[in-house]
């Protein structure tokens, strides 16, 4: 399991101006938000839907419809980044999606402070999840989701 932030590509508009004019500017729209996606892949084969994390306490139905990936979850912490309250939420979502698999299920995470909580440990016990933390100094060496999943997506869309 890993998470990464995305900032959508900015769209540029065409500007028509007189040649050699000193008063030419280009209108560029800036993205007004970023989003974080937490995802996992399964060595057993079945797909594991991601959770999309967008900034905001209130989420509008139109925005949710635009961001939704089939069977994915969406949440909105105030700043839009993963935090210690998101992992327990995601673990329940993950546990429900792997209910049909034999237990225990091994889940490898990086050694982030957001992944360490008593609540997360209790949820792992309930769902038969063995949580394995990578050493803090080794996460840069073991980033399969960043290389195989998130980077191609970012190259194409961000």
Structural commentary:
- 27% of the residues lie in helices and 16% in strands.
- The protein has 158 residues and is an alpha/beta fold.
- The chain has a single domain (2-9, 23-157), classed as Nucleotidyltransferase, domain 5 (2-Layer Sandwich), CATH 3.30.420.10.
- The strands form two sheets. The chain has a four-stranded mixed sheet with strand order 1-2-3-4, sandwiched between helices. Strands 5-6 form a two-stranded parallel sheet.
- Helix 1 links the parallel strand 3 and strand 4.
- Helix 2 packs parallel to helix 3 (118-127).
- 17% of the residues are buried.
- The mean pLDDT is 76.
Please render the helix and strand layout as text.
Blueprint: E1 2-6, E2 35-39, E3 51-53, H1 61-67, E4 73-75, H2 86-97, E5 105-109, H3 118-127, E6 129-133, H4 144-157
Parallel strand pairs: 3-4, 5-6
Antiparallel strand pairs: 1-2, 2-3
Helix pairs in contact: 2-3
